[in-house]
Design brief:
The protein has eight helices and four strands; from the N terminus they run ααβααβαβαβαα. By secondary structure, it is of the alpha+beta class. A four-stranded antiparallel beta sheet has the order 1-2-4-3, sandwiched between helices. It is globular and about 60 Å long.
């Protein structure tokens, strides 16, 4: 009988496995720590290639990568953000609005690289394997490209900030994107002075980290393990406590 605690047959070596989890748990949405130093092309090429190797429904690879280095274009995008951000502030109740007004929510002008990752929903034609009954799978595939890039960037020591406070059509017009192409993520990328130990919104008291054990159901929606009797639920609760206490993923 196999030892249940033995490494799985195709697991990475311990150091490689730890590096993957380190990238995941130390990744941050960077806004205010960008440095003006340029990003070397060899590093940029690696993180773009990581994005391009994301999984995609029907292997349709629906993404494009629009690289923005021009200060003129960055300013145009920043203006689009500013208009939407002023609108957004008015949507929150007074207490939240005060916190919102103090948050820096983008690094468009400060970061040396801006990158818009898009989704071409017409790529591969109208019938795509795996998208026949869930048509939004191409959008989710493009989000996987974003996450691949984000984790690769963290491993390279680069910060990434995802800016989403835009009117979609205004962003398309600022970048010359045809209106049938969906902007998935506008990313600010660059070297940073530091990475925060916790997500900025968590530190600012915007929202707390939810207990993962409260988000886990068994076999049917809403069927939870409220007594923490299942070993998996208990293991997750212990792991989350350890992360909160030590600030890093337990080895």
């Amino acid at each position: 009988m196999e030892n249940p605690s033995a490494p799985l047959a195709h697991a990475f070596p311990d150091a490689d496995r730890a590096a993957v989890y380190h990238a995941i748990f130390s990744r941050r949405d960077v806004r205010g720590q960008f440095l003006p130093d340029p990003v070397p092309d060899e590093v940029l090429s690696r993180i773009l290639m990581a994005a391009h190797h994301a999984p995609s429904v029907g292997f349709m690879q629906p993404w494009n990568f629009l690289l923005v280095r021009s200060s003129t274009v960055k300013q145009r995008v920043h203006d689009v953000f500013s208009d939407a951000n002023a609108e957004a502030a008015r949507m929150f109740p007074d207490g939240k609005r005060e916190i919102y007004s103090k948050l820096k929510l983008q690094g468009i002008l400060e970061s040396p690289i801006n990158l818009c990752i898009t989704c071409d929903r017409s790529r591969s034609g109208p019938v795509v394997l795996g998208r026949t009954h869930m048509p939004t799978m191409d959008l989710y595939s493009s989000v996987c490209a974003v996450q691949n890039l984000w984790l690769a960037a963290r491993a390279e020591g680069l910060g990434v900030g995802w800016v989403s406070i835009f009117h979609e059509k205004a962003l398309q017009d600022a970048l010359g994107i045809p209106h049938h192409i969906v902007p998935i993520a506008y990313l600010c990328i660059g070297r940073v002075s530091h990475f925060n130990d916790k997500p900025e919104l968590e530190k600012a008291g915007w929202l707390p980290r939810l207990p993962v054990s409260d988000l886990l159901y068994y076999d049917q929606w809403g069927q939870a393990d409220s007594a923490l009797a299942d070993p998996l639920t208990a293991q997750l609760a212990d792991m989350q406590r350890a992360i909160q206490q030590d600030g890093h993923f337990p080895a």
